[in-house]
Design brief:
A 9-stranded mixed sheet has the order 11-10-9-8-14-6-15-18-17. A 5-stranded mixed sheet has the order 2-1-3-4-5, with helices on both faces. Strands 7-16 form a two-stranded antiparallel ribbon. It contains 10 helices and 18 strands. The protein is α/β, with parallel strands linked by helices and about 375 residues long.
């Protein structure tokens, strides 16, 4: 058991190398061991390219007969954009496969394990399964529910205010916190915001070129899709985000007649009280193979999303500043008269970022 954990840790470390580039595919790592020596290592880099197992087999250069493969996710058994990894492992003479967790896709889950067992390969499953799932939270959630993993980010003062009365919020938090945000943005398939945020701050809402994050891979030019909720068609072609590289989706109730650049798409949704139906929007993004949604918006949308009970994590950057009672609140919620009915969270992580404190909180969905 200790030996299996030792090698699976290395496979998970490899899998993490793809966290900025593999979406919508999961992060997967593979280690091949023979006579207690690692002879092959691989990780999945990008959709459509070789899977982790194939990279590891290639590195092993035909020395794999009688070896053990450690894989962070069940090897695929079907022909997709690449051939099945099960077949490659069988043909390579692998005699044992240790798998962290089975594939969550109900269409393929367990089929890879069955194929390997049919070939007489010994299977061990469940080694560091939690760690593997944590590395692919969005993929696992989308495969099981059709809904992406949703993180809501807010920068606030120590008195819980997100902006001044006039709407200005630049900059409540520190430069270090703003740099930290880039990491979460790059991991996400979509950055979701509102026209109100664009009108007040006119942000780019992209991953900054001047951070070290983009140098991690050759996919620096690939920005997350920026989805702007714009039910009143207030976003115009002159806004900064429109004139920057990367896709922009305008979520609207009806199209306008503006001439938009090729990177802009208007997506029409059903309405609810003359507003975008947020549940339909989130489901649509899941159907577009988006694993992770990163939300940066004001108090109104933040409150609506929390009330809808669809947020997975709340990311709070708390700055040591006081904005006063006239400033805008963290989020707009109903008037609660019972503490047992208020949204409740669990602290997952507390970290000092520059002069600020970053809280990562998980919402108790059964409490709302």
């Amino acid at each position: 058991m200790m030996k299996d954990i030792f090698y699976m840790k290395k496979a998970i470390k490899l899998a993490k190398l793809g966290e900025f580039t593999t979406s919508p595919n999961p992060n997967v790592g593979c280690i091949i061991v023979k006579n207690n020596i690692i002879i092959g290592k691989g990780w999945h880099r990008k959709q459509g390219e070789k899977h982790a197992e194939i990279h590891a087999l290639s590195m092993a250069k035909g020395k794999t007969k009688g070896a053990t493969a450690y894989v962070t996710l069940e090897p695929c058994s079907h022909f997709g954009l690449t051939p099945p990894c099960c077949l490659a492992l069988i043909q390579a003479g692998i005699i044992r496969v240790v798998i962290a967790v089975s594939d969550p896709n109900p269409k393929v889950s367990g089929k890879g394990i069955i194929e390997l067992k049919k070939a007489g390969i010994l299977i061990k499953i469940g080694i560091m399964s939690k760690e593997s799932q944590n590395l692919n939270q969005g993929f696992f959630k989308r495969m099981k529910t059709g809904i992406p993993w949703i993180q809501l980010k807010l920068g606030i003062s120590i008195d819980g205010r997100s902006a001044l009365k006039n709407g200005k919020s630049k900059w409540i938090t520190s430069p270090e916190s703003r740099k930290d945000v880039q990491y979460f943005r790059k991991k996400s398939g979509v950055i979701l915001s509102t026209s109100q945020t664009i009108l007040i701050d006119n942000p780019l809402l992209n991953v900054r070129k001047d951070t070290n994050i983009l140098s991690v891979s050759n996919e620096a030019k690939n920005q997350p899709i920026r989805v702007i909720i714009d039910s009143k068609n207030r976003i115009q072609p002159f806004h900064k985000c429109v004139n920057s590289k990367g896709e922009i989706w305008l979520a609207r109730l009806k199209q306008d007649k503006n001439i938009w650049p090729n990177n802009v798409k208007q997506v029409i949704f059903s309405q609810r009280n003359n507003q975008i139906n947020l549940k339909h929007l989130i489901s649509y993004l899941g159907n577009c193979n988006i694993n992770n949604i990163w939300i940066e918006a004001g108090a109104s949308l933040s409150g609506s999303l929390i009330k809808l009970n669809i947020i997975d994590e709340l990311i709070l950057y708390v700055a040591p500043k006081l904005l006063g009672h006239h400033a805008k609140p963290l989020c707009m919620l109903e008037k609660y008269l019972d503490l047992n009915k208020v949204p409740t969270f669990t602290f997952k992580d507390v970290t000092k970022i520059g002069t600020d404190i970053r809280f990562i909180l998980k919402i108790h969905k059964n409490k709302i």
